[in-house]
Specification:
By secondary structure, the protein is of the alpha+beta class. The chain folds into three domains: about 10-200, Heat Shock Protein 90; about 215-325, Ribosomal Protein S5, domain 2 (2-Layer Sandwich), CATH 3.30.230; about 470-655, MutL, C-terminal domain, regulatory subdomain (Ribosomal Protein S8, Chain: A, domain 1, 2-Layer Sandwich). It is built from 21 helices and 24 strands. Strands 5-4-3-6-2-1-7-8 form an eight-stranded mixed sheet. A hairpin with a 2-residue loop joins strand 19 and strand 20. The protein is elongated.
């Protein structure tokens, strides 16, 4: 009995279909690319139930003759390649002749097509790759392909399909990539009877970018255009101030074909080095044009991986093009006041403009509510006699510093006053009380009815039971690292990492939902179809962590609230990072998902490097690190580095 068997053509087709058709999105990609090769200017894509039960692609291309419609579904049948010399310079989206054969092998298909100028068209129906019916048919010029019951005859592949929403998101993304690569093409996508997006097809990259990626992405884009050595690159890159939390908004095209290229990705991100925040990624839509013989697209059946014959030249071209676009950005801040603000902020007369800052300082004018103009001249007052708010009191020291010609540092006093950091002798700490949970034995006001003396005694015992580690805060270096003298060593503390760990532990130990703050001005967040699915799938988890979102139009959401410790301007970047982690599968279970999200929340809410920090806050961070409660940040980085007296002496050659 022979061991080696020759597979039947039907089984071979089903195996090949697994390479080309992974999911409904693969069908849409192949059919839309065929329409583009047919010279279509308008394409409509319709799906139902995520594309598993119904996909229809209609175009106004050249159509097919009856004799071509019958053989189009045979394996390796193509009109785009004639001999081996054609492989040296492929200029079409498809060329293998495998797409229609692979799709028909695992589905039911109905094709209606008519060539331009013909009086009638042709209708072909297939099931599992076999033609069931074929004959003349009345239809418009172009081609309409309807795919039904995808994977009905391959249960092993059918059970691996994801939810309808997930598959629909992948279909939308596949069609969007095709539309974005061809601004001259008008593509409409309809899902379950509802239009998801529409590209105008006017040939302008700007309008294509705006209609497909949205206003928020388009308004922060910089135009990019460069040529050299027989190749060119054009498109758009995002401003460094508009960095994103993931790479989902990076689109690369080579001769109109969407590709995935680590080379181009690296070239773009290298250009942003030292201008983009760590952990942020640029958005881009770049169109690379080069000779068809300089790129090999015959690498993978999906045709998204390519090889360049001159990788270094391609890298340099993209790198310098992006760098030039970033260098041409206007970084001048334009501040425009509304008419109402101008009316309040600017006086009607030029009374104040007539007096210099020096004259005003010497006169020591003090404005009263009634002295609003030249009709009521302000009465002189001495700054030295003023004992008002800390900010105004600090103004006297600022003026004094200016008179002495010294350097002025905003809010140097009282926020940066040197304090005596010796251990307190009469410090009493009150036990922490949850703000949302009323303590036992409390009255309606929330204050405990227990004896105050008992609380004090318990607090003193708690403080005395902890070993006191004497330390001295020497200062803060580069607004990032706290310098602490600790016995016979010098301790450097990363204030952001330490504060991030404290917030993370606090949030993680809470058994209730995290306190949220409602936003006075809600923030809009635009998500891709895939990100929208993740938001809705993890909506309950995000709500428990303080995020409240509402759908707002197509692929847009309104952020109504964020965690209490997070700044509103950090909401978008936090959601982008959270979605990036959920997309990469870093959170296989609910507890891990919560921890991953808490990492991002804690990072956004923590003190940032470069901020001026109150001395009392620095003291609390130092106490947490010195006591051993905080050792590593949630991402595993150490929060402190210690240099012993011996190590310092060796550095200065005091000892050998």
């Amino acid at each position: 009995m022979p061991v080696i068997n020759i597979l039947s053509p039907h089984v071979a087709d089903m195996i090949a279909a697994g390479e080309v058709v992974e999911r409904p999105a693969s069908v849409i990609k192949e059919l839309v690319e065929n329409s583009i090769d047919a010279g279509a200017k308008s394409i409509t894509v319709e799906i139902q139930d995520g594309g598993a039960t119904f996909i229809r692609v209609t175009d106004d291309g050249c159509g097919m003759a009856p004799e071509d419609a019958g053989v189009a579904f045979l394996r390796h049948a193509t009109s785009k390649l004639h001999d081996e010399r054609g492989l040296e310079a492929i200029s079409t989206m498809g060329f293998r002749g495998e797409a229609l054969a692979a799709i028909s092998a695992v589905s039911e298909i109905e094709l209606t097509t008519r060539r331009r100028g013909d009086s009638e068209g042709t209708r072909v129906t297939l099931s599992a790759g076999d033609i069931q019916d074929m004959g003349p048919w009345g239809c418009p010029e172009g081609c309409t392909m309807k795919v039904s019951r995808l994977f009905y005859n391959t249960p092993a592949r059918l059970k691996f399909l994801k939810s309808d929403r997930s598959e629909a998101s992948a279909c939308i993304q596949a069609a969007l990539r095709c539309a974005l690569g061809h601004p001259e093409l008008s593509l409409r996508f309809i899902r379950d009877g509802r239009e998801e997006f529409f590209s105008p097809g006017d040939g302008r990259m700007e309008s294509c970018l705006y209609s497909l990626l949205g206003r928020d992405v388009a308004k922060d884009m910089l135009k990019c255009d460069s040529r050299g050595e027989g190749m060119a690159v054009k498109g758009f890159v995002s401003s460094p101030a508009a960095g994103r939390g993931n790479r989902s908004a990076q689109y690369f095209y080579c001769n109109g074909r969407y590709i995935k290229s680590s080379l181009l990705q690296s070239a773009v991100e290298q250009a942003y080095k030292n201008s983009l925040l760590t952990g942020r990624y640029p958005a881009c839509v770049l169109y690379l044009e080069l000779g068809y013989g300089s790129v090999d697209v015959n690498v993978h059946p999906a045709k998204t991986e390519v090889k360049f014959s001159a990788e270094r030249q391609v890298f340099d071209l993209v790198y310098h093009a992006v760098l030039s676009a970033l260098g041409s950005e206007d970084r001048t801040a334009k501040i425009e006041l509304s008419p109402a603000v101008k009316q309040v902020a600017q006086p009607k007369a030029d009374f104040y403009k007539s007096m210099s800052a020096k004259d005003f300082r010497e006169a020591g004018y003090k404005l009263s509510p009634k002295s609003a103009g030249p009709e009521n001249p302000p009465a002189p007052a001495s700054f030295s006699n003023y004992s008002g708010s800390p900010v105004r009191a600090a103004g006297a020291d600022m003026l004094s510093a200016l008179e002495k010609g010294g350097a002025l540092r905003a809010y140097e006093e009282p926020y940066q006053t040197r304090l005596d950091m010796s251990p307190p002798t009469n410090f009493v700490a009150s036990p922490p009380v949850s703000p949302l949970k009323k303590p036992e034995g409390s009255d309606n006001t929330g204050f405990s009815t227990a004896s105050t003396q008992q609380i004090v005694e318990n607090s003193v015992q708690n403080v005395e039971s902890r070993p006191l580690i004497y330390h001295k805060i020497l200062g803060e270096a580069m607004h990032t690292y706290i310098i602490v003298e600790l016995e016979n060593s010098l301790l450097l503390i990363d204030k952001h990492a330490a504060h991030e760990r404290i917030i993370f532990d606090t949030l993680k130990n809470q058994k209730r939902e995290i306190m949220a703050q409602a936003l006075l001005s809600p923030v809009t967040f635009r998500a891709s179809p895939e990100e929208g699915e993740l938001l809705e799938k993890n909506g309950e988890l995000l709500c428990s962590l303080g995020f409240e979102l509402e759908p707002y139009g197509e692929n847009e959401y309104i952020v109504r609230s964020v965690p209490a410790d997070m700044l509103p301007e950090d909401a978008r970047s936090a959601l982008e990072e959270i979605l990036g982690k959920l997309r990469l599968g870093k959170a296989p279970d609910p507890d891990s998902a919560r921890d991953e999200i808490l990492h991002t929340v804690a990072c956004k809410a923590a003190i940032k490097a470069g901020w001026d920090t109150d001395k009392r806050e620095l003291e609390r961070l130092v106490e947490a690190v010195v006591s051993g409660r905080v050792k590593y940040c949630p991402h595993g980085r150490p929060v402190s580095v210690s240099l012993s007296r011996r190590e310092l002496d060796k550095l200065f050659k005091r000892i050998v």
